[in-house]
Design goal:
Number of strands: 0
Number of helices: 2
Distance between the termini: 18 Å
Radius of gyration: 16 Å
Order of helices and strands: HH
Helix content: over 70%
Structural class: mainly alpha
Length: about 70
């Protein structure tokens, strides 16, 4: 039987997941906007970098959840 996690650990994991998802998406959006301004493409790099940021955020979230579930945190 697994020992139960404290509520503070649950709050920590939720805040880590939220910050990873939001941070990576925001970095992707601002990078895409900057690239569009520099190169002169309309929303091309904004959309590409948004999806890349979302994928990186989901990957980081999965890594954090795996680490939390294995008990390394």
């Amino acid at each position: 039987m697994r020992p139960s996690k404290s509520p503070l650990q649950a709050m920590a994991i939720y805040s880590a997941i939220l910050s990873q998802l939001v941070g990576s998406v925001l970095i992707g959006v601002f990078t895409g906007m900057w690239l569009d301004d520099e190169i002169g493409t309309a929303p091309l790099f904004l959309i590409i970098c948004l999806f890349v940021g979302l994928a990186v955020g989901v990957w980081a979230m999965l890594q954090t959840v795996r680490k939390f579930e294995s008990g390394d945190v």
